[in-house]
Amino acid sequence: MTSHTNIADLSLARDDEAVRDLVARLSPETLVRVNEPLAKRTTLRVGGPADIYTEPWSEKDLKTTVEFCARHRMPIFVLGRGSNLLVKDGGFRGLVVCLAHPAFCRVDVAGSEIRCGAGARLKAVAAEAKRRGLAGLEFLDGIPGSIGGGLRMNAGAMGEAIFNRVRSVRLMDFEGRVEERAAAEMKARYRGCGLLKDHLALAAVLDAQPGEPQAIERRMREFNEKRWRSQPAAPSAGCMFKNPPALPAGRLIDELGLKGTRVGGAMISFEHGNFLVNDGTATAGEILKLIDLVKNRAWVERGIDLELEVQVIGES
Ligand code: EPU
Q: What global pTM score does this model have?
């Protein structure tokens, strides 16, 4: 849940005038913080602060915010639930916007269509579908992200990906213009979405189909059991690398004998080779060194160029 923060209560880190100007244009319900730690907002739990962090209360406030960034040429980053994100130790010079306000987290069902706000948790969407006897979205249950992040990454699991189920997406460009696009126009691909590189997702309509409640429940349970068996519980960003065409990255890292390899508090999980876990003491720098080590070994020993799935932002 968000709470309203009065900017006057905060000591502003930089560009005070600009921030005051922004806050003056926003409704009091919109949360704005300066120098906000990001580590706690990511599942990897590393990285430095954002200069400005905001949770808009409405599309209007979001539009005001993106216009502010465009006017001040301030970098903007859209944060989901931080489950596929590595923030560097120096933090992010710019504004981080997160659609976590309840206004962006609605999940509304009409027939077999589910309209979800970008801030809605994938788990909440799967739960609502199950409650309404709608099948096809069970795979979303164990993905620790939001609809917005899920769309941006075309998140997937269990042989499914979210864009297989998307009918349309409501988006905003970085000048504040809003439009609705059919899924086919979104340029979705494996773990990515072309249009969401320069647009923010505001909401999406997902398609499900009527299903037998017990079968839905059973599928969810099977998926979760598979996940618990094969994936670590320690803090991580999920799979670190995209699966290359030749073989799954997790198997490759396993075959290279790298499980358990450490750089400081960062370690390659024993449970799954494509998970880099934080033992609670890792820095972003250590995780980045471990990434380099893996990439280097995969290239030198197997000629495979591993590509990061996790997004990296900020400065060292
Ligand atoms: N494997 C190993 N050793 C390991 C890990 C995996 O030999 O350490 C083998 C497995 O036995 C299996 C194969 O590699 O034969 C693939 O492993 P798994 O079934 O775990 O799937 P994956 O391709 O590694 C993908 C997604 C996951 C998703 C799972 C389950 C990618 C990069 N990863 O993993 O998504 O949860 O399928 O459906 O596409 C994520 O995107 O962050 C993520 C975790």
A: 0.95
The residue-averaged pLDDT of 111-140 equals 98
CA nearest ligand 1 atom 10, residue:
251
Minimal-distance CA residue to ligand 1 atom 29? 157
Q: Is the pLDDT of residue 284 over 80?
A: yes
Burial per residue of 86-98, b for 16 or more beta-carbon CB atoms within 10 angstroms, e otherwise: bbbbebbbbbbbb
SS3 143: coil
CA-to-CA distance for 13 and 224, rounded, in angstroms? 43
Which residues does ligand 1 sit against, CB inside 6 Å?
157-158, 230, 238-239, 242-243, 248, 250-251, 254, 272-274, 309
Cα 14 off chain centre by: 27
Residue nearest (by alpha carbon) to ligand 1 atom 40:
239
- CA dihedral 275→128→77→66, nearest 10 degrees, is 170
Taking only the tens place, the pLDDT of each residue in 66-83 is 999 999 999 999 999 999
Do the Cβ atoms of 38 and 82 come closer than 8 Å? yes
Note the pLDDT of residue 259: 98
